[in-house]
Here is the input.
Amino acid sequence: MNLNLPKKPKMNVKSVVIYTISAIVCIIAITIVGLSIYYGSEELDRLITIGGSSVTPSDEEYQLLVANFDNLFQNKVEIDSTDVNIEKVNEEQDVIYTYYSKDESKENYYDINVNIPYINMNDEIIQQYNEEIKQTYEKKVENILQTQSKNTVYTLQYEATIENDILSLIIRANLKEGTSAQRLIIQTFNYDLKNHKQITLEELITLKGLNVNDVQNKINQEIRIQYQRVEDLKSLGYEIFERNPENEIYKIENSQEFFIKDGKIYIVYAYGNENLTSEMDLVII
Here is the structure.
């Protein structure tokens, strides 16, 4: 007696592919939900973007960094790591220290509170930095004390870091002379300790493994946001320093003021460096 067994149905390859993809998607979705519950959404975002192309912190962290910018200035140097030997001019002092400090006031004439830094390194470029700092900031104090012709308020603070063998110094000065508008002046110095040279923003971006075009796009985006903010305030009748998003100053190769802190680069556009304003824009990557 011959038995005719039923033929095994042919497998539909297309259906198998669809079912497999659906199963994988479901597994990924369940995994993400589980991780989100365990880590929290912010931490999960950070874990997912490690090694990715993102050039900025999360929105929440970014706003916190911007808000805390004024608190950075503690008149000291923070050394994270350095693999090079630094030859100091004065072995008894730190790599960067306050060499000139004055807290003095005279009613109706001046109110001065400054802490001016000195980079304690035996290096030709560094000594040029020190001379520039002296001629710019100490000389301004002396001028205020000598002339006493205006009701002047002058304050100055600084902060410095050494991270991955890059020395970074940022100086912030506020100047109010008579009836003129207050100026916010920010100057930075960035020096490659290993290669004994000044480091540019583009070189630093590349050193951190970031894409220059991505950073430029981030700068453009932030400046457009600030431009729109100013336009909105102007429409309400406020007078505020105007930005031009097309200005060449926002190009990376023209961005001179930047500072390194906790692995992040602070790019500063302080309009008071050239104008009578305390307005500035900050981009953090």
The mean pLDDT is 86. The CA atoms of residues 36 and 226 lie 33 Å apart.
